[in-house]
Amino acid sequence: DTLLSHGDPYPLERVNMEGGSAAAASRVQSTDLASEPASAAVGAISVVPVVVLDVDGVLHPLNDRGMPLYACPMQLAKRFHMDEQLPHDDNQIGGVVPGEFIPSCMAELARIIRITGAQIVLSTTWRETSSQRNAVDAQLVKHGMR
After folding, report:
1. Rounded Cα distance, 32 and 87, in Å
2. pLDDT (tens digit per residue) in 16-48
């Protein structure tokens, strides 16, 4: 048996894939995000919603050069330089400058996480070093998501 999702994670279908057959065995539907968390047991399979998060352009808008729109270019350059100097240590937290992680964007992400019960999976350049991942984690904590 396999779970299939067609576009939006709703509706989900539990499909029997034996013998090439694709008959739907049962269906879980949600039409209102504000109802229950989307985590639901389907038979013996647990469905856990996931938010695949790209930080740049989502948690702060970007300008036409792909840089955070509201951040000072000099502060960004300084942060990039300082982050490069950090030791490769899992406990280091990378820098964040004003204009990154916009509070209204973070509040909307927090609302989505709260309503859906979703896990966050980073799909962003911020995942590439432990210090950058830790910087994102620190912002998630700051905005009530961890």
Report:
1. 46
2. 333 333 333 333 333 344 455 555 555 668 888
Question: Which residues have a Cβ under 8 Å from the Cβ of 133 and sit 6 or more positions away?
Answer: 122, 126, 127
pTM confidence score: 0.67
- For 52-76, write each residue's pLDDT tens digit: 999 999 999 999 999 999 999 999 9
How far apart are the C-alpha atoms of 66 and 122, rounded to whole Å? 18
The torsion angle over the Cα atoms of residues 34, 59, 83 and 73, rounded to 10 degrees, is -160
Judge whether 47 and 38 are in contact, CB under 8 Å: yes
